[in-house]
Amino acid sequence: MGSLVRFLFIIAAAVGAAALLAASLRRRAPPSGLPAQVVSSSHMAGRNRSFVLWLHGLGDSGPANEPIRNFFSAPEFRLTKWSFPSAPRSPVSCNKQFLLPADGFVMPSWFDIHELPMSAGSPQDESGVLKAVENVHAMIDKEVADGIHPDNIFVCGFSQGGALTLASVLLYPKKLGGGAVFSGWVPFGSSVTEKISSEARKTPILWSHGMADRTVLFEAGQAGPPFLQSAGVSCEFKAYPDLGHTLSKEELLYLESWIKSRLNASQEKDS
Fold it and tell me: Looking at the record's lineage, which domain of life comes first (predicted)?
């Protein structure tokens, strides 16, 4: 009987140990319905942070546009980094028509502009645009390297800055959160569409233009959506009656909601 008791005791101990091991393994396993992988805190931080790059118009400056951020008070912008760079000073050809210096009056300009008002058929400084695009891409790359997800990066611009915005998001190799063009135009020919990557074609574009614009004519803005459609890029076009060559409060408030909805969608991807 003694040996039988000892045998039963050994069996019971083994069963108990197995039960404890199983319980321990269950505690280490992920809860039902959740993936086993661990999402790093830095990855989550990248999804919560965002970056808005604002490109000003001809003759303007970055600091003069900084009050724009005051329109973005929603909680989604709590971790948003803003950048308002200034264009380099250079001669601008369109100033010749106003009897200014023969090589064009020097002013802040992202690239050369040959004539104003800007129409759908105006000549473009494609080489200057592409050089400016490289500088914008360097700004974006810096934020991506700092951990901000490309889906949370938005490039916005007014007039000449709007044209540069369009070129920059179309030629960036990755999909971005979006590009917002205000009173801008298409700054290059259709041949550039061959350089647009499949990822960049997924970047949504918001295009806003005043119907009373006498500097960048409404027809120049209207040429944008067909150009983008031919390139396979989604574009939401908004026309503002009686609005001249300026930004309106209505445009900025809509931009806030437009970016906010895309930030929410980006964060839901990892939730």
Answer: Eukaryota
Give the β-pairing of 106-108 and 89-91.
antiparallel
Structure tokens of 234?
Answer: 């989604």
AA identity, residue 44: M
CB-CB contact of 219 with 120 (8 Å): yes
Alpha-carbon distances of 246 from 95, 172, 242, rounded to whole Å: 20, 27, 11
How far, in Å, CA of 139 to CA of 110, rounded? 14
The HSE-up count of residue 212 (CA atoms within 13 Å, CB side) is 8
pLDDT tens digits for range 54-78: 999 999 999 999 999 999 999 999 9
- Rounded Cα–Cα distance for residues 136 and 155 (Å): 9
R_g (Cα) of the chain, nearest Å: 27
CA gap 47, 78 in Å, rounded: 13
Active site residues: 159, 213, 245
**Amino acid occupying residue 183:** S
As a whole number, mean pLDDT of residues 231-236 equals 97
Structure token pair of residue 160? 């000449």
